[in-house]
Amino acid sequence: MKKVMMILAIAFSLIGTTTTQAQAKLQVNIGNQPGWGPTGYDHVDFYYLPELNCYYDVIRGQFIVLTNNAWIYSNNVPSRYRGIDLYRTYKVVVNNPRPYQYNASHIRQYARYKTDHTQVVIRNSKEYKYYQSAGHPNHNQWKGNNGQAGNNRQGQGYQNRNNSNNNTVRTNPGTTRGNTQQSVRTNDNRNNGNRR
């Protein structure tokens, strides 16, 4: 009986350690999220934008667009979509590496959101935690408080990489090494013709 109890204690200890490690990896990154990003998410890796059929890398501050059968990083949305208001178009949070590999599935799964313009965005939120986004109109207030609300420290050190006055997203030059576009996959990784 003691052996069984000891084995169970070790097993629960390992499960607790794994859960703690997973939670530590998902750090709050509201400061990296653009003002046009949806509220409700303390950590986001990517957005999928069904109306544009492209992705946005929150950490790099760049769009990932399909061009000539390859997914590339770009500072701007494709020119054919420049009239779309990023504050109104729907965004789906995707926290998987290389989400574009699942594009055919995303097209099918999120097609119904192409015309949904009801999503609340960070820029319009009254919650203090969203002030740390450079795209929020009260971002300077958050910076002036050094990310503090009373005794609650709210993650300092986020970089101002977003411009809330237009839909162009500025990038951190250190992450892109001066390139405005970078191919992220080759033609042999295409969507196998599953697109609608």
Give me the side-by-side strand order of the main sheet: 5-1-2-3-4-8
Structural class: alpha+beta
What is the helix content? 10-25%
Give the ordered list of helices and strands.
HEEEEEHHEEHE
Rg over CA atoms = 20 Å
Q: Ranges with pLDDT <50 over ≥5 residues?
A: 14-24, 150-196
Terminal CA distance: 59 Å
Q: Average the pLDDT over all residues and give the rounded result.
A: 73
Major sheet: size, sense and barrel closure?
Answer: 6 strands, antiparallel
Strand count: 8
Report the total helices: 4
Name the beta content range. Answer: 5-15%
The dominant shape is globular
What layout of secondary structure does this protein have?
Blueprint (H helix, E strand, L loop, with lengths): L1 H24 L20 E4 L4 E4 L4 E6 L2 E5 L17 E3 L8 H8 L28 H6 L3 E2 L2 E2 L19 H4 L4 E3 L13
Antiparallel strand pairs: 1-2, 1-5, 2-3, 3-4, 4-8, 6-7
Structure description:
This protein has helices spanning 2-25, 103-110, 139-144, 173-176; strands at residues 46-49, 54-57, 62-67, 70-74, 92-94, 148-149, 152-153, 181-183. By secondary structure, the protein is of the alpha+beta class. Residues 14-24 and 150-196 have low confidence and may be disordered.
Keywords:
single chain, 196 residues, alpha+beta, 6-stranded antiparallel beta sheet, two-stranded antiparallel ribbon, 8 strands, 21% helix, globular
Quick rundown:
The chain has 196 residues and is α+β, with helices and mostly antiparallel strands. The chain is built from four helices and eight strands.
